[in-house]
Design goal:
The structure holds 2 protein chains of 2 kinds. Chain A contains 5 helices and no strands. By secondary structure, chain A is mostly helical. Classes of the chains: A mainly alpha, B mainly alpha.
Chain lengths: 144, 174
């Protein structure tokens, strides 16, 4: 079990860092159209924020916020979002992953813009959920 | 960016790689590997691949290191055996493959060559289409999530499946 860190400096810094990191993850996700970054990087940063939380404030602090079932559900949900975004186009008579076919009241270019955002969100959830659940298991020394 | 900078970064990578492999303490090896990931990210940034650099920073330097450290929590910091003597066969094989790579290096087009095959094949199509077709200024995002969306779908499935497999292995009763 990862214990809470003794130093006040570390715990205070973690308290400040975690919300900022999560905000930055959101920024990386939604700003991926304009700047470097995107779903994958955002997912890793989101997972990293929870890992830092566990390392600084202890495993209990992490368990109070997320659990394995939630992370697995988020990870599968992320993949599902991606697949569904792709399949909707197919259902409406276009190619798989043709976001222009998404039933949105916007121009095809704008629909592709949102399609990209949807699948990037899916990637973020899939990556973040997978990494957190793996870290939980790896850091779990009690069960052995 | 200048070739000299890239040369220095590549030299540093070589030293860090050898250091990570030879370190007797696995904690030192894991941290060295994290530094290796960070220098790798700097190298990507130096040659203009900013998106790859970003990914390398968060995954290579960040997540991978933490996962190695978490694995060390469950195991031991010590190597099971000291780094052994050189194996001649392996050394010969590595040298042969390395020589082959260096010898064929001149066949690659120079970095940023507009007349090279990748630059004249599909790249112009993507670069010209990105803005009018997807409204996305960052061409890398448009290619990854839209033009090559099928590849990225499969990558996401691979990450999820790999993570699930790892989780199942770690969940198994000892």
């Amino acid at each position: 079990m990862i214990e809470r860190h003794d130093s006040t400096i570390v715990t205070t810094f973690v308290r400040l860092l975690v919300p900022l990191a999560q905000l930055f993850a959101l920024y990386v996700l939604v700003h991926g159209h304009e700047s470097p970054g995107g779903g994958f990087q955002a997912g890793v940063i989101l997972a990293a924020s929870y890992i830092v939380l566990a390392l600084g404030l202890g495993r209990e602090a992490l368990d109070r916020r997320v659990n394995e079932r939630l992370c697995l559900a988020l990870a599968s949900g992320g993949v599902l979002i991606y697949v569904l975004t792709g399949i909707v186009g197919m259902m409406l008579g276009r190619a798989l992953l043709d976001y222009a076919a998404l039933p949105l009241p916007v121009t095809p270019a704008r629909a592709r813009f949102f399609g990209i955002l949807f699948v990037e969100t899916g990637i973020t959830l899939a990556v973040a959920g997978t990494l957190i659940v793996l870290f939980c298991r790896l850091g779990d020394t009690e069960r052995e | 960016m200048s070739d000299a900078l890239v040369a220095v970064l590549l030299g540093l990578l070589l030293i860090l790689a050898v250091g990570a492999v030879r370190a007797a303490d696995l904690l030192v090896a894991a941290i060295t590997l994290g530094v290796y990931g960070f220098v790798m990210a700097l190298t990507w940034a130096a040659i203009g691949a900013v998106d790859v650099s970003f990914t390398e920073t968060v995954v290579g330097a960040g997540a991978t290191t933490v996962f190695f450290l978490a694995a060390l929590l469950r195991t031991s910091r010590r190597r099971s055996a000291a780094p052994g003597r050189l194996r001649l066969g392996a050394l010969l094989l590595v040298t042969a493959v390395g020589t082959l790579l260096v010898v064929t290096l001149h066949a690659l087009p120079p970095l940023g060559d507009l007349a090279a095959a990748p630059s004249v094949h599909v790249s112009p199509r993507y670069l010209e289409g990105t803005r009018p077709e997807t409204g996305t200024p960052n061409a890398v995002t448009a290619v990854v999530a839209d033009y090559r969306g099928y590849d990225t779908l499969m990558e996401t499935v691979v990450i999820f499946t790999a993570g699930l497999a790892g989780w199942l292995l770690l969940t198994r009763e000892p």
